[in-house]
Amino acid sequence: MDAPYLLDSNGLLAAWRRLSAHAEFGQGERYELDEWGVPVANACPSARRQIVLTDIFCQVTEQIGHLAAMSVAVTTPSFGIRVPDVVWMPCDRWEDFDRDDPVPFVPDLCVEVLLDSDRAHDLDRRVTSYLEGGAREVIVVGRHGQIEIWGVKGSRQASMFGVALSPDRMYFEQGEIAAAPGARC
């Protein structure tokens, strides 16, 4: 039996277009493609998760500009076509590709929100592939609202873009979070 092979960006794009054309798959952004072009289903986000995603999107646009987007498919070099929760990049990077297709590279900033998401199991690969694909920074909002910031040199204490996310704690599970001194949950 032939071993599966990794698809190049053209192969991934062709597989994405086939996937998007099928009515049973509904909206393309609910699926991703792994590095072999195999569809990976993502559950529809709950109302709670959608509220948090919208809040994070609004915070990014307020802090670094309106060139952010939610649930945009991006082409990674090692993990297929993935759909980060929020992406941001400068205006000139939005201009040079067909915006009906997945972004052919990874935007400068990617944000993943793990609230009621099944992405935690592949988070390390996801973060690595975003950074390998051109992201300058990846921000992860954990299941309990904690913020992790990653760059090509590893974990960071602060965003290189000056983004300081503060998700509303009422939407997160509080059981395992230690509140910062003076913070109210």
Task: Describe the protein's topology.
Elements: H1 9-21, E1 31-33, E2 39-41, H2 47-64, E3 68-70, E4 74-75, E5 81-82, E6 86-88, H3 91-94, E7 109-113, H4 123-132, E8 137-141, E9 147-151, E10 154-156
Parallel strand pairs: 7-8
Antiparallel strand pairs: 1-2, 3-6, 4-5, 6-7, 8-9, 9-10
Commentary on this structure:
This protein has 185 residues and is an alpha+beta fold. It has a domain at 44-171: Alpha-Beta Complex (tt1808, chain A), CATH 3.90.1570. The chain is 24% helix and 18% strand. The strands form three sheets. It has a six-stranded mixed β-sheet with strand order 3-6-7-8-9-10, sandwiched between helices. The chain has a two-stranded antiparallel ribbon with strand order 1-2. It starts with 8 loop residues before the first helix and ends in a 29-residue tail after the last strand. Residues 176-185 have low confidence and may be disordered.
Q: Count the E strands.
A: 10
Strand fraction: 15-25%
> What profile does the largest beta sheet have?
6 strands, mixed
Shape: globular
The strand order across the widest sheet is 3-6-7-8-9-10
CATH homologous superfamily assignment of the domain at 44-171: tt1808, chain A
Proportion in helices: 10-25%
In the predicted model, the low-confidence regions spanning at least 5 consecutive residues are: 176-185
What is the CATH class name of the domain at 44-171? Alpha Beta
- Based on CA atoms alone, the radius of gyration comes out at 17 Å
Could you give the order of the helices and strands? HEEHEEEEHEHEEE
CATH architecture of the domain at 44-171: Alpha-Beta Complex
